[in-house]
């Protein structure tokens, strides 16, 4: 019995090899029915010898010379911008759109009125008064920007930057309007000397 078992066990591998060789010859090199090329697959479904996804980050890092799998460059297209400080609505959300933007409309209305006065020249000193009104409109914008927490579209940058820009421009326009020749309403000697030196 022991001899027969040994003979059977020894004959089985040989028979298998012969059967495998015969099968290969009989099928004529046919591919499997599932369309695969006969390569062996791994447990996770990938083909043996093919690069896996786990090796991709290290490959990209080696190619770029930087650690990590993704690029740290900023996007080429900016999709949105941050709202400036105090750029919220100046009125409740259920109010009409003009009411929510009343600070900006106030400044624009005063500026338009000043330009209308300058252009119409309906009374004496109209250009001077219209120019002063434009400066006052900018000073009003600076005051509104300082007093209110939310001013809508009147807010462009930070509160300090807006106040400084509106205030400097408004003050300069008012001073120039007061010092306009002839018969200036305000005389500042060092400013007159600076203007004469610049005009030469």
Number of strands: 0
Report strand %.
under 5%
Provide the succession of SSEs.
Answer: HHHHHHH
* Number of alpha- plus pi-helical segments: 7
Secondary-structure-derived class: mainly alpha
N-end to C-end Cα span: 129 Å
The stretches of 5 or more residues where confidence is low (pLDDT under 50) are 1-29, 61-65
Average pLDDT, to the nearest integer?
A: 73
Largest sheet data: none
Spatial extent as radius of gyration: 43 Å
Shape: extended
Helical fraction equals 55-70%
Region (Disordered): 1-98
Biased composition (Low complexity): 35-66
Organism: Streptomyces ficellus
Transmembrane segments: 102-123, 129-148, 160-179
In a few lines, what is going on in this structure?
It comes from Streptomyces ficellus. This protein has 200 residues and is mainly alpha-helical. The protein has helices spanning 2-27, 55-64, 97-100, 102-120, 126-147, 159-178, 189-199.
